Amino acid sequence: MSLKTRAQEDMKKALNLVSSLEGENEEVKNIYGGLCHNFPILVRQSGLCQALAFSADKATGDGNRARAHQKLLEHVAAILGQNDALGAVQGADAIGYMHYTRRVLSAWVYFKRFAASVLGVHTGGHDESQQT
Amino acid sequence: MQAKMIFWQALTPVHPGTGQDSSSVIDLPVAREAATGFPVIPASSLKGVLRDGRGLEKNDESEEAAIARRVFGYAGKKKKSDSEEEEDISQAAELTLTDARVLFLPVRSYAGTFAFLTCPLVLERLKRDQKALGLPELKASIPNPGQTDALLAQNTQIVHGDKVILEDIDLSAKVGGADALAQELGKLVFGEEAGYFVERFALVSNDVFAYFCEMGMEIIARVRLKSDTKTVERGGLWYEEAIPAETVFSSFAIGKSGFDEINRPYIQIGGQASVGRGLLRRLGVKYES
Is B234 within 8 Å of chain A by CB? Predict the structure, then answer.
């Protein structure tokens, strides 16, 4: 089995997860794509706990926005190698918390890029040229 | 050759940019050391600002231009006065400047408003550089704090209960655990203003310091609006990172002369000068040429 870098694994995981949104309706894709751009900023400004709590609040219910936030939380958990992102972060000690923060930020670079290239969502809004 | 130590303190947020960096979630991140990830102001930025464009015009024969060329160097040719031929008037710089590395990082603290953080790695590197360059070394011992400890001066203002509460990290306060070090650093860097520094000083572990070097930067949102609708253009939202005000940097100047060129009360580095960003004040003693 060949050795792969963490960057390769992160990129592959991000591409698969973002691509899974292609089957969703347009509004879910747009909201999720916007979250891909904004979520790491929220982590940097408010910390991982607050960012996740915010998303968990928005993830309740059945609407498109809730669906997008549910997907976000699933993908954060996938980055951390856990089933539940909130549970993992809550259970970590301070050093673990710092590690989780770094892992999310490091891997999220690829989510930003693929949100633009796969879903056509850029900062400032959806890329209309990709609509069919 | 001799070396001088220079300290700079950010009066406003500073953005020593790297251009668009695809490895960061921030669109316009600050420059960082490759090995540590700590913010840094490149020496080339310092040199350019200190030179301030002097001596770059080859026909400028003023004394000021001559001094600037001698101190900061020059590469170019100039026509000879007695013929049409050009002569190479290039000269190497007499003064060498190093990158300005973060020495104390301000982090919001529940008590005392903010703390000045540093760590053993930063101080050991400073001490090593002082020794290598023939400068007086730090005398106080550099203790090694635990992962969840903050070593403080005796007269500290950043303790709440028995904790130093920094953003979302609570550290166990060890009052007096680094008092000698805080006093020495305060005198060395801030002189008469040492008190303002000492009461906020905290020595934390290398890992905690590295975490705040990543998470403690300012994030500034910028937008570009459509002229007709005043709504955000596609792709017209981006984020800039800045090193926060109060951060202290250390750097060195090495050479035979020209040290008086660094005796400025303040400099401005990076963009957004018109809105006051990037102001750094010079700390420490003045130098003769």
Answer: yes
Quote the minimal CA–CA distance from A50 to chain B in Å.
Answer: 10
Contact B280, B11 (CB under 8 A): yes
Helix (H, G, I), strand (E, B) or coil at B176: coil
User: What whole-number distance in Å separates Cα of residue B125 and Cα of residue B181?
Assistant: 15
- How wide is the angle at C-alpha B102 spanned by C-alphas B142 and B8, nearest 5°? 110
End-to-end Cα spacing for chain A = 41
B88: helix, strand or coil: strand
In the block, residue with structure tokens 């190093």 = B98
Q: Distance between CA atoms of A121 and B237, rounded to whole angstroms? A: 12
Q: What's the pLDDT tens digit per position in A40-50?
A: 999 999 999 99
Indicate yes or no: CB of B169 within 8 angstroms of CB of A122. no
Asked whether the beta carbons of residue B25 and residue A49 sit closer than 8 angstroms, the reply is no
Residue of A nearest to B233 (CA): A124
State the average pLDDT for chain A. 90
Number of neighbours of residue A47 by Cβ within 10 angstroms: 18
Q: Which of A55, A94, A57, A62 is nearest to A77 (CA)?
A: A55
The pLDDT, as a whole number, for residue A124 is: 62
Alpha helical stretches, state H, chain A: 6-19, 26-46, 48-58, 64-80, 85-91, 94-117
Is the ipTM above a cut-off of 0.85? no
For B289, other C-beta atoms within 10 Å of its C-beta total 11
The CA distance from A80 to A62, in Å, is: 26
Sign of CA dihedral B155, B158, B163, B164: negative
DSSP SS3 for A119 = coil
A103–chain B Cβ distance below 8 A for any pair: no
Q: CB-hemisphere CA count at 13 Å for B93?
A: 17
Mean pLDDT of B223-247: 89
pLDDT at residue A36 is higher than 60: yes
A10 phi, psi to nearest 5 deg = -65, -45
